[in-house]
Structure formats: C-alpha cells, structure tokens
Amino acid sequence: MTACILLAGFVCGSAEQAPRLHIIQAAPAFVLSDQSGKNVALADLKGKVLIVGFIFTTCNGSCPATTSRMVLLQEELKRRGQWGKDVQLLSITLDPVRDTPQKLRSYMGLYDIDARGWSFLTGPAKQVKRVIADWGMWVKKAANEQLDHPSRVFLLDRRGRIREIYNLEFFRIPWVLEDIGSLLKE
Fold first, then answer.
1. What residues form DSSP beta bridges with 41?
2. Domains in the chain, start-ordered, CATH in brackets?
3. pTM of the complete model
4. What pLDDT is recorded for position 1?
5. Which segments in the chain show pLDDT lower than 50?
6. Which residues neighbour 92 within 8 Å (Cβ) at sequence distance 6 or greater?
C-alpha cells in the first residue's frame, strides 16, 4: 500500500489522491520589521502561500542567486494574477546589524522588487538570531566580512506549515510554481 502512495500518488484501491507535499512541521512564529519599519508577524500572513528565504544584502555568494530566482518567481506570479493576493514572498536577513530597513529598501531597488507581494525583514540582532535558529538555519562569520550560511528557501501552506525546503539547486521556478499550485488547491 505504501508503494502505491509513494510511486503513483494514489491510495491503493481508491481514486483518492494523496497530498504531493507532506507537512514537514509548523513554521516557527516570528515578529520582525519590514523594509518600511512596519512589524510583520508570521501569524498575520496565514491564508497565503509563503515563500521564505534567508539572505543578507552584502552577500557575494548564494544570496544574489536566491534573490534573482525569487524575482523570476515574482514576475511569473504577477503574470498569473497571484502576486500579493494568494502568494507572498519573505526574505529574512542573516545580518541584522548591517541590514537596516533603509538598506533593505535599497537592496529591493537593485532587483526591482515589488513590495506589494514581497517583504524584507530585519530586527534587533538577538531577535533575528532566534528566528534564524528556530528555522533551522545558521550563520557564522567568514572572510572579507561575508557570512557562511546554508541556502534554503521554505514553502509554507496557507495554514503556516512548512511543506517543502529548497536548496538553491532545487529552487527552480517551474518546480516551485507547481508546488505553489498544489498548495493553492488545498
């Protein structure tokens, strides 16, 4: 029976489709400040599918690649009429000391990011450090004022549950759009 569910996506002996994206865990709660200084709580975003990434604005490694892919996702969601309504993007800083709301706004301008559906979040260092740890992320100092960190992007369903965790290699726009589509149908 398990093989039927895993391989075909159907429960043996019925036409009932099993969920393609399993529930990993409830997303850890947080309250941080966005690029305009307004508080954003994860709980306030329930009802939307969320894409949550972790970056820092002075990164010369994976962060620009992650942000660029999220921009491509932004454009496709706009084309589909889902931007800011059904789907919201969040980027949480890994460097709250340098990534002030003003710095985050400047970074958004570099990528032509539309704040109607994408918020960049920061806060006091201690608070951001707790969020980073709660989400299973980590950050440590590296050479040339860079930070070493994993590249992960989280997909949350409308109920605030993590349903997928992408690394940069698997954060491919067609795949992410398919996953978003599955969650929007739930």
1. 31
2. 21-185 (3.40.30.10)
3. 0.87
4. 37
5. 1-16
6. 30, 32, 52, 53, 54, 55, 120, 121, 122, 128, 131, 132, 135
